[in-house]
Amino acid sequence: MLILGIESSCDDTAAAVWENRNTLLASVLSSQDAVHRPFGGVVPELASRRHLESVYPVVDEALKRAKVTLADIDLVAATQGPGLIGSLLVGFSFAKALAAVKSIPFRGVDHMAGHILSAFLEETAPSFPYIALIASGGTTSLYLAESHTSFVLLGRTRDDAAGEAFDKVAKLLDLPYPGGPQVARLAEEWHGELINFPRAWLEEESFDFSFSGLKTAVLNHCNHCRRSGVSLPVAQICASFQEAVIEVLVEKTLRAARQREVPTIVLGGGVSANSRLREVFAKRSRQAGKKLYVPRPAFSTDNAAMIALAGYYSFLKHGPSEMVSDVYSRSSLG
Ligand code: KG4
User: Low-confidence residues of the chain, pLDDT below 50?
Assistant: First the structure.
């Protein structure tokens, strides 16, 4: 069965052709980083306009690279939510129109399900159940994945997502957008003492996250340096901030795995591209006797291959989506 996946939840337009025996025939992505960089963050109106320009060429390119035509496609799957409504509407409506015109079944997909299942795009796939930490620019959530279609939300951020916190701290330090990779790069240069920024552990049993207090602590530290006429220790701030984020992500994820007696952890979302995060997770998972799966960055960041894969399993369980179905801004997974 050949599945065409389409993703347009935020600022990347993506399309992929995936075959259900786990062969990825093509995965194409058009990034909008250059469009949003001058504004220091994603501008929703510009994002949806750019999706409109990109969606047809990106889908066309994916079909060409896969050496197939629409006549070969058995299922069209598109991100239904969560995300920016204007962005989602472009990919979702385009996918519905393709499916209707060509009489192909259509399935709307929750973007988070795509991230949770993205490890299945790799050759060595995890076994259920596993704990999935999805940390990106729009979300930071912990799930218990019980099957390809059953996910229990254990915790989520109460304010900023981890990637959003990286981006905002980068902005405070006058680093270009997207800030995550910039903060990570500068953090690598610092080998000295770390500033003890706060970790928000929240209630003892909680698997929720909170990063806004940490961001404010960084702002206060910057203001203090500026008032005292001291030049900003940018690399030290980046390393200290990054360490605080990573410690909370790693420890809460491991606690969830221990509490649920689950042997496996899967990471997803743009922040999982962070090499220090991968290093600490690898070390702490080994110590805790847990298996760790981290898909390559092309699969852990926003992509359409994970939407095709999640759409396939969702279609097997629920059948096609109604053509009147609409996009949504909050995840349907809880
Ligand atoms: O999943 P993703 O590609 O898409 C959206 O959430 O839209 O995640 C993007 C986020 C951004 O906030 C970016 O700054 C962050 O992931 N990110 C990183 C790194 N690479 C990307 N954060 C920390 N370290 C990185 N190396």
Answer: none
